Amino acid sequence: MIKNFPLKKYNSIIKFYKDYIRILNECLHEIDEINLFKISNEIQFALENKKKIFVCGNGGSAAIANHFLADYAKYIKTTDKLKPQIISLSSNIEIITAISNDISFEQIFSYQLSNLISKDDLLISISSSGNSKNILRAIEVCKKKGGRSISFLGFDGGQAKKISNYSLVLNMRNYGLSEDSAHIFMHVVCQYLKQKISKLPINKITF
User: pTM to 2 decimals?
Assistant: First the structure.
């Protein structure tokens, strides 16, 4: 069941903060743990088999996509053999505005993706509603090209949940909480894989 927050007005920032954290914690404990396991495996497979990983999102989710690029391209590189190939489809304002202006905003991700993706590459989409048309078109192109698709979502998951190979959904109708969860999913998988793949003892790994 999808939840909503806030359900009342607050006069205390402390009370608002405590309820915000409580609700986020409750929703995070309700995610599909089997999908979390499968998503971790998909990302590990892509990293270890030199497959490209594409990420995309709109607005605040675009910032998370770019943060994903920073974390995985730099932070998760633990050995000389592991060379992540991460591409954020949300990072190049020149190509985004060119596609938006000359073709359509719905194709800002799918147009880029169609030129770059290969079989078994991975697309990670970040969307609170799961219904953004440019996100859905990117997932469709990914499927047509033989790629694998993962989505970090909020609300009820929208159409993206239905057409992605795997998804993690925070069942909450609140953009801030949905974006917080995407950041958490990103960091959890990244740090988990770093400690799993690294040959260093745990006290020598920077988290």
Answer: 0.94
- Helix count and strand count (H, E) for the chain: 8, 7
Which of these, 166, 83, 155, 159, lies nearest to 123 by C-alpha position?
A: 166
Q: How many domains does the chain have?
A: 1
CATH number, residue 81? 3.40.50.10490
Q: Is 1 helix (H, G, I), strand (E, B) or coil?
A: coil
Domain that holds residue 70: 3-204
- What pLDDT, on the 0 to 100 scale, is given for residue 201? 86
In Å, how far are 21, 124, 127, 140 from 58, measured between CA atoms? Answer: 24, 13, 7, 17
Q: How far apart are the first and last CA of the chain?
A: 34
Nearest to 41 by CA among 122, 143, 113, 118: 122
Q: Is the pLDDT of residue 128 over 90?
A: yes
Over range 136-163, report the average pLDDT.
98
Largest alpha-carbon pair distance within the chain?
54
Q: Over range 25-32, report the average pLDDT.
A: 96
Name the one residue in this structure whose structure tokens are 């998988």: 189
